[in-house]
Amino acid sequence: MHTNQRPGRILGSILAIALSFGATSASAQTFPDRPIKILVPYTPSSPTDNMTRMVAAALSERLRQTVVVENRPGAGGTIGIMALKNATPDGYTIGVLVSGNVVQPLLVKDTPFDVRKDFTMLTSLYVSPLVMIVPASSPGRTLAEFIAMAKTRPGKIFFGHAGIGTTTHLAGELLNQVAGISMVHVPYKGTPETLPPLMSGDTQAVFSGYSTAKALVEAGKLRVLAVASAKRIPILPDIPAIAETYPGFDVSAWTGFAAPAGVPSHVVERLAVEIRAIVQSPTIRARFLEIGLVPGGETPAEFSKLIEDSYTTFGKVIQNAGIKPQ
How many helices (H) and strands (E) in the chain? Predict the structure, then answer.
């Protein structure tokens, strides 16, 4: 009797597998069948919000489904990030992460998330290469001259930044470490707030995304001394990268898209493919390059590696600078 039932059991197993495969295929074909929400952990009309809305509009057209941008600002982005972490992992809620989120556990005690573990990466939106900016009147006309000046004035050269642990802060600390100088960091509420003290001479350097300081540089009030990313950037082809003097120097601020951990792989693939196509489209690329941003569009695996590399690089800078979680 047992032997006679065996073919039936095998057939049942085959049918179960087939039905499971069919359900997965149907799910892949029907996603999305309702609106998608993109959480932005910053205020409306912020640069990140504006860029996200550009992508959301294009994504809505490609998916033929409503895509809504929902702002969840507060607590340095933590409110929005936690909303993303706790969302149902079905692909209908995705969100924005930035490079600073990666090292928050190293800077803030009891940070309730770990970007490397709590999210499924989709792709990067853009990379904002940082540039080292000095007053137009600075006697340091080149990076070498600035470093030489800083070495003769230990503890008397100040650099402004957008807050403890931000890329604008860590870039300055990394330059201290590789160049053997001792610039003193001065935190402000944001990068725009660092520029007036730079123009007045209260600080001597600032690391910033070029787009933030572009108007003042073009007006001749500030000067770009060097690029903090690994290579020169298209919008400033004549400005050398710090890595040309100190190999391996590479600090950039990136923004990207992620979903909660546990989203089905076929949904991740669909979202990643569509968003990547948008970010790499001629219209979006031209818009980003125009304001000094490098368009993203990595695969989920490549984006995950970027995050791991950011954690390793910034972790070493934080440790060497003696920065403790607060």
Answer: 13, 10
Report the distance separating Cα 288 and Cα 40, nearest Å: 19
Which tokens hold the place of 277?
A: 């196509």
SS3 state at 88: coil
Residue with tokens 């440790």: 319
Considering the entire predicted model, what is its pTM? 0.78
Angle at 280 between CA 268 and CA 252, to 5 degrees: 90
pLDDT value of position 99: 87
Q: Confirm if 225 and 133 have CB atoms less than 8 A apart.
A: yes
pLDDT digits (tens, 9 = 90+) for 12-56: 554 455 455 444 444 456 899 999 999 999 889 888 899 999 999
Cβ-based neighbours of 125, under 8 Å, separated by 6 or more: 51, 52, 55, 96, 254, 255, 256, 257, 279, 296
The 3-class SS string of 94-147 reads EEEEEHHHHCHHHHCCCCCCCHHHHEEEEEEEEEEEEEEEEECCCCCCCHHHHH
pLDDT tens profile 115-147: 999 999 999 999 888 999 999 999 999 999 999
CA distance 202 to 180: 22
Tell the residue number behind the tokens 């979202």, with chain if given: 271
User: Cα 123 vs. chain centroid, distance in angstroms?
Assistant: 10
**CB contact set of 61 (below 8 Å; sequence gap of 6+):** none
Backbone angles phi, psi at 296, to 5 degrees: -90, -135
Name the nearest CA neighbour of 253 among 109, 98, 79. Answer: 98
Residue 136 to residues 15, 85, 221, Cα–Cα distance (Å): 74, 44, 5
